[in-house]
Amino acid sequence: MNTRTGLLRTRSEITVATSAPLHPGWRRCSSVAYRRVRALLAPCHPGASTPILATFISARVLTALVLIGCGAPRDSHPAAVRTPAQGGGAGADDPVLARVDGVAIHASQVARQARLDKVPAREALEELVRMELLAAHARRLGYGDDPDVIEEARRASVRRYLSATFERDFTPADIPEADLVKHYQKNLRLYVHPELRKVVHALVPVQEATGAEQQRRARERALAIAAAAAQRPIADAAAFRALAEGFSDADLLVRVEELVTSRQGQTVEEFASAAFALGGPGRSSGVVATSFGYHVIYLVSVDPAVNLSFVLAKERVREAAWPEVRAAAFLSFMEDLSRKHQVIVNYAPLRMPSDG
Fold this sequence. Notes:
Helices cover 44% and strands 13% of the residues.
């Protein structure tokens, strides 16, 4: 049997998802503090993994190559992301399936790699062999001392640490009930409100002191906007804005504004009545006269009335509160780490002359 056949398949025969992040939850973070750390841990530079290499090796194994290139123990096999409890040592119960320059690849590593990448065992073994081949040659050529390789290994180790600690130990389910109640009360308008309508309106402003002739011309300009909007479907708010702004000139200014209004209490009666008379999103009004001038209103969206108690809204509250709560938890996590290590920061060299 030719043991090399599996390693010589063409690139078109191999399908590997290369765009997935090393940790699925990493890109979901949205808080400012967490985004800063995520940016710190991004790859050293764009395109660090070439398309050809990525075709043959998964993202997880590429990270393992970095770790091996930086001098990870030859029997640690980080591609399988093992822990001591997960096996991988030599023995009759864990046979050696392949060797590359003396480095053994055990059945337990292949089984774990197959589970992680959701591929057959044969394909997992071939991937581990490819990884060892590349890692061995990279070491031989001295790439383990490359600054970018060393930096990427540092970042990969931090990603692994966070995924095994903070991201595992603190989830939305861990948000205290008191924090959820506080978020609900602070953002009550999101859970209890009447029907709301988001609109974009074009306003040709007039003032009380404006003469009759100027008011007539302002109304005619608004009529022209309304007629143009009624002639053809308006795709979205941006299209309505572009249309309305096309009628503005040095003689008559057309202001285009976006706002949200309820049926009562948020805008003047004439404006609210016209907005709520529109049949649905994408519809525009005729000319609406108010004390501010002449309006043409375009309906963007309708937010139905809601009246959710805390109990009914609890899961929505949890989802909405999660970014803010996670940011605060991460800051506490970092403060706890700082107490376990010596951290000395000198900001003086960063001070610019203008800072005083």
